[in-house]
């Protein structure tokens, strides 16, 4: 430590003495020499004094830099290595150490520039350079000298220097280059480890964000699946059970007046009960009505509305089928609309129409019931079935519109998305 401090003081003294000599030389040459040329030796010329001051002011900084570089170049490798050891100890693994190292290397060897490249996970990366305007990406034949920096068997970094044109490194400067590469291992190992920890931290942070996003998507998917199951039960199985209950009440009413008719109604409910059981069984297995998958939408709709308390006619062309997601949405929207008509409208008949128009699937469910005010139903929160239909169609990119007037019946119009947008 004392040797390093002594070397630093000696270097500063060399610079100061050199600057003093430079100033004196300028004044001697300009003021005295110029005065002798113009025949004025008795007293300094003010103009020449101003000229000398200007020359000193303009050249002072460049001369100072040259003297500082010269003081390092005349230093022994031991001096430079000592200075590096002192700075490494003072900075305690500071991230600016590669910059300090490249500065010492460039100034100590007199190279045109010096660079320190650290080993990272993706390869070598520039960590320090001197001067600051030195190239940022050079390798191969463009670099005069390069040496690896190792710690044990691990390569931690690489030192690169560019010799000045026509000024190769001397034997002493070569020793300095090799010695600095040998001593830099421990210091740069700390920086490499820190860099790896930072990279690992970024990876863990990205992984954490990915897991948080994944967990959010799982929760959303679970919520969506729960909502879907609730809608499926409401729109499918519940429709069968409602129809079954209404028909059983009808049988109870007509039993006293027409036992034969009551017997026929009750016999028909066996099929309705089995249909409800099949629907619930399908939902419990997480699948849709079997007939929807096997025979298509029209067949599934005709089977689904067969047990309705209100006569339902289903019209359409079954030669083509909508995409699976849209087909499911149309099925349950239709079942919801038919169920609402049977429960609330007092209708005597319901007409279901399914067709394609301009590449888009259209479904209409029309009843001749009492009708209702759509806005009031939605505002009062009693239109849960209407919201279910909208949610289903929103999920597949379709729309649903309800046209209803009190006393004039209701029409539910469902429009699927364009063919190129169906998921």
Write the layout of secondary structure elements.
Elements: H1 2-37, H2 46-73, H3 77-91, H4 97-109, E1 113-120, E2 123-130, E3 145-151, E4 154-162, H5 171-255, H6 259-284, H7 290-295, H8 297-304, E5 312-316, H9 324-345, E6 350-357, E7 360-367, H10 374-380, H11 384-395, E8 399-404, E9 410-415
Parallel strand pairs: 5-6
Antiparallel strand pairs: 1-2, 1-4, 3-4, 6-7, 7-9, 8-9
Helix pairs in contact: 1-2, 1-3, 2-4, 3-4, 3-5, 4-5, 5-6, 5-9, 8-9, 9-11
CATH architectural designation of the largest domain: 2-Layer Sandwich
Please identify the top-level CATH class of the largest domain.
Answer: Alpha Beta
- For the secondary structure, the number of strands is 9
CATH superfamily of the largest domain: GAF domain
Strand order, main sheet: write it out.
5-6-7-9-8
Instruction: Give the low-pLDDT segments.
Output: 1-7
Question: For the report, how would you describe the main beta sheet?
Answer: 5 strands, mixed
Rg from Cα:
46 Å
Structural class: alpha+beta
Q: Percent of residues in beta strands?
A: 15-25%
Shape: rod-shaped
Distance between the termini: 74 Å
Helix content: 55-70%
Number of helices: 11
* Annotated CATH topology of the largest domain: Beta-Lactamase
N-to-C series of helices and strands: HHHHEEEEHHHHEHEEHHEE
Averaged pLDDT: 76
How many domains? The number is 3
């Amino acid at each position: 430590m004392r040797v390093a401090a002594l070397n630093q003081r000696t270097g500063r003294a060399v610079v100061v003495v050199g600057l003093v000599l430079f100033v004196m030389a300028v004044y001697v040459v300009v003021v005295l020499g110029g005065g002798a040329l113009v025949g004025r030796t008795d007293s300094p010329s003010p103009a020449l004094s101003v000229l000398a001051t200007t020359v000193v002011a303009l050249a002072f900084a460049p001369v100072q830099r040259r003297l500082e570089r010269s003081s390092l170049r005349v230093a022994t490798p031991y001096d430079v290595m000592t200075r590096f050891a002192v700075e490494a100890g003072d900075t305690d693994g500071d991230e600016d150490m590669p910059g300090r190292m490249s500065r010492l290397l460039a100034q100590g060897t007199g190279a045109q520039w010096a660079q320190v490249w650290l080993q990272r996970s993706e390869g070598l990366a520039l960590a320090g350079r001197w001067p600051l305007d030195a190239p940022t990406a050079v390798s191969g034949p463009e670099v005069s000298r390069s040496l690896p920096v190792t710690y044990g068997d691990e390569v931690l970094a690489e030192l690169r220097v560019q010799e000045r044109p026509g000024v190769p490194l001397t034997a002493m400067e070569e020793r300095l280059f090799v010695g600095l590469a040998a001593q830099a291992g421990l210091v740069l190992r700390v920086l490499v480890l820190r860099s790896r920890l930072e990279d690992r931290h970024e990876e863990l942070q990205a992984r954490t964000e990915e897991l948080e996003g994944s967990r959010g998507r799982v929760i959303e998917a679970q919520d969506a699946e729960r909502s879907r199951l609730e809608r499926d039960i409401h729109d499918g199985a519940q429709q069968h059970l409602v129809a079954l209950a209404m028909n059983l009440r009808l049988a109870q009413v007509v039993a006293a007046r027409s036992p034969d008719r009551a017997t026929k109604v009750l016999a028909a409910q066996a099929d309705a009960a089995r249909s409800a059981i099949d629907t619930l069984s399908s939902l419990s297995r997480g699948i849709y009505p079997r007939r929807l998958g096997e025979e298509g939408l029209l067949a599934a709709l005709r089977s689904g509305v067969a047990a309705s308390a209100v006569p339902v006619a289903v019209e359409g062309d079954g030669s083509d089928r909508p995409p699976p997601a849209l087909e499911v949405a149309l099925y349950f929207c239709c079942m919801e609309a038919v169920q609402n008509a049977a429960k609330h409208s007092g209708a005597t008949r319901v007409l279901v129409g399914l067709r394609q128009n301009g590449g888009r699937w259209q479904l209409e469910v029309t009843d001749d019931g009492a009708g209702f005010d759509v806005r009031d139903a939605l505002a009062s929160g009693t239109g849960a079935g209407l919201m279910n239909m909208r949610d289903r169609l929103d999920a597949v990119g379709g729309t649903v519109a309800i046209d209803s007037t009190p006393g004039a019946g209701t029409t539910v119009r469902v429009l699927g998305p364009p063919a190129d947008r169906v998921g």
